[in-house]
Amino acid sequence: MQSEVKKVQIYMWGIGGGAAKIIARYLPLDRIAGFVTSHRTDSVSSEFMGKHIYTPEEMANRKYDAIVVSSVYVEKIYADCCKANLDMNRIIFIRRALATPPPQWRR
Description:
With 107 residues, this protein is α/β, with parallel strands linked by helices. The protein contains three helices and six strands.
């Protein structure tokens, strides 16, 4: 009997250079279900790299396995996650994978 492999629903928080670096280095675009940003407005496209962009409030009503945070604005994103009542056990902050570590990590 062949078991079915569940497709994991991974979203990426961030629609800038950090997201592009993570996609290039660690997480192929075809594994990402969509993107999340707190700054989606009429002037910001509703798509990034061909995937839909959601707000934190929209994510609160979606099913997902994980949201990978690719932005350096972790404090603001953490607050936005709490405000939208997102499951913090499914939020993965990967700041260290980005180019510059925060000052407190530098020696």
